[in-house]
Structure formats: structure tokens, C-alpha cells
Amino acid sequence: MQSPVIQFLVQRLVCAWQTPVTLEAWLYAAALLGIYSMITVPVAFRLGFVRVSASQLSVKDQVGVIAIALVMPSIFEEVVFRVLLLPHPGEGTSPDVQWLWGAIALLIFVLFHPLNSFTFFPASRTTFLSPIFLMAAGFLGAVCSLSYWQSGSLWPPVVIHWIVVVVWLLFLGGYEKLYSPSSQS
Fold first, then answer.
1. Which long-range CB contacts under 8 A does 94-100 form with residues at least 24 apart?
2. Are 171 and 53 in contact (CB under 8 A)?
3. Within the chain, which residues score under 70 in pLDDT?
4. Which of 95, 101, 154, 161 could form a disulfide with 16 if both were Cys (CB 3.0 to 4.6 A apart)?
5. Number of domains the chain is built from
6. Which of 12, 57, 20 is nearest to 156 (CA)?
7. pLDDT at 145
8. Could you tell me if 141 and 73 are in contact, meaning their C-beta atoms sit under 8 angstroms apart?
9. Domain contains 14
10. Does some domain include residue 15?
11. Would you state the pLDDT for residue 179?
12. Which residue range forms the structural domain that includes residue 35?
């Protein structure tokens, strides 16, 4: 017999996985992605965190990056930090409780990146400890939370997260920042 907590979390996951995404939800997600980009990209350029840089990876490797980024970080992190931690809109949670859980989930989401750099992904340490990266991650987490609350579906925040990661890795120097030997200093 499963514990009530596991049953509750599985129910949240199934609900978020199966909630149909409306046109309104996709438009809201697109607007959030636009706002995120208009704020984060200029700041990241100004602080030298990103640069226009087409990836030197082969087409096959680029396709691999795109596919892997869909699963990790996008689906994995959105399931953990949005679906499992945030009240689903259908639960009828009060706004105060939603915002409290939103703040907790956002803090854990941001702290996950430095922790990840010290455990599973040491090559990312310099990047994942960078204040501009942590600011961008925090803003991304907030945008994904808003998209999840508006839609009730896993999919809009996954798509937002995925687009941000793929654009950063393949077009703004992120892949080299994470994987080049000079990034390890």
C-alpha cells in the first residue's frame, strides 16, 4: 500500500500531465517567455555572461543537446520544482498558500543548481555559482511557476524551460561555458 503522500504526489503529477493546454495558456506562456527574454538577455549580455555564438557542435550533437535538454533539465526540473511542490490550480488552495509554496519551491530550485555542481555535475560549478546564472535561474523558475499556475499543465513551463536552455546552450555560448576546459577555472 502506498503512503498518502506518495498517492497525493502521483495524483498531482497525473493531473498536471493530463491537463489540456488551452490557446490562452500557450499565449500566456509565450508572453512570459518574451518578458523573460527581454529582461534576462540584455542583462546577461551587459554582464558578459552570454555572447552570440553559434555552437560548433555537429548537427547530430546539436539534435542530441536539444533532445536531452527536453528531458533534463526541462521535464525533470518542472516535475520536481513545479508539479510536485506547487499546489495544482485545481486543488483550490488559497493565494497565500500558493505564494508560500511558490517561494519555497523557487528557493529550492535556485539552490539546486549550486548543489548539483558540487555533486553530479562538477563541470558546471563556475557557471552554476555565478550570480547572473542564479538570477536568471530564479527568474526562469518564477516564470515557469506563473505559467504552471495559469495553465494547470506541466507542458507550458516545460516548453519555456526547454527553449531557454536550448537557446542558451546552442546560440549564446552556454555549451562552451559548461563543457569547455577553460570554463573549469
1. 98/149
2. yes
3. 181-185
4. 154
5. 1
6. 20
7. 98
8. no
9. no
10. no
11. 86
12. 21-184
